[in-house]
Amino acid sequence: MTMAFSAISSTTPSFTLSCKKHKSPSSHQVRVSLKPLSFSVKASSTSIGYSSSSPSVADKQSLTLKSNNWQWKFKNNSINIYYEEHGRESLEPPKNILMIPTISDVSTVEEWRSVAQDIVQRTSDVSWRATIVDWPGLGYSDRPKMDYNADVMEEFLVDFINAPDSPLSLSENDLVVFGGGHAATISVRAAKKGLVKPKAIAAVAPTWAGPLPIVFGRDSSMETRYGLLRGTLRAPAVGWMMYNMLVSNEKSIESQYKSHVYANPDNVTAEIINSRYALTKRDGARYAPAAFLTGLLDPVKSREEFLDLFASLDGKIPLLVVSAEGSPKRSKAEMEALKGAKGVNKYVEVPGALLPQEEYPTIVAQELYKFLEEIL
User: Fold this and answer.
1) More confident position, 45 or 299
2) Model confidence over 339-354: pLDDT tens digits?
3) How many angstroms separate the CA atoms of 330 and 165, rounded?
4) Distance CA 351, CA 24 (A)
5) In the chain, how many domains are there?
6) Domain housing 184
7) What is the C-alpha to C-alpha distance for residues 62 and 320, in angstroms, rounded to an integer?
8) How far apart are the C-alpha atoms of 211 and 208, rounded to whole Å?
9) For residue 192, what pLDDT is reported?
């Protein structure tokens, strides 16, 4: 999820920006304004009470949010990983949902907050607790300069779920995973290997190819260009200059949101743009996005591998695929390939583009909650 790039030289790799407008679904004109919650993201531990007026939930639910940092031990380093826990008071132990943000240059827990709040406050026989976690190198987590790739991200996810000090505090199979974009595919890949054993997985607008590979392919010539661009973005001085020009400016972020991240440009608010722009100014902000843009975070290399991941869980783990009506053409084709595919128990389509869970949270939450009821 980022600006599309065009390679324009056959000798010296260079890249310019271009974007294509995608029309929003005509049957859904929903205005959404995401308001960041009022707490310090670097707080060691914060508990917040909040309320909701949603007609689908009880009028007076005691809801809580706790923000914190978990220390991920990776190659003798300790990396601060930011996460949030959304829940409501209940006499019964809650069941766990892990919500993982879409990997992008502006990836953040904020994209799942409204969905989390919607689900945990619903009254039923089951009490749910939703944990949203930022990837290393993205969102509000630390962003060290290291070699980010799909294996590193998978290792993080496995450790976050399975570590003895994991914030999830799981009993056997007491976890449902909701992932967006690449996060969904990485989760399925980890499950295929048996490294994680969730009760179910919901893949929301799942993707597997980064912005450049999905547009320009992965032949040796393009891989060379990607490597040069990645190296430039990681360089001390010129890297920041290029990153500021391509990604870390309000106009670029607004352009990508209006062209392919959201389906309805009217839903893109100044508040959202300002929030995402602030993320791009964090220390080390360019390292993980440089890997994502150039395909290093891609969990597979082809549609065949993509379909094989989902097929591998057939009869083992229930899988829901939530496709988005207004997704960019190439990404939408990959989502549609999962319709009726082996291993996919249920396939639904919702309005939106690459972030339907943020743009249309009420609709997405409703589909996810139906899935939760079905698997129970």
Assistant:
1) 299
2) 999 999 999 999 999 9
3) 40
4) 8
5) 1
6) 40-47+61-216+292-375
7) 30
8) 10
9) 98
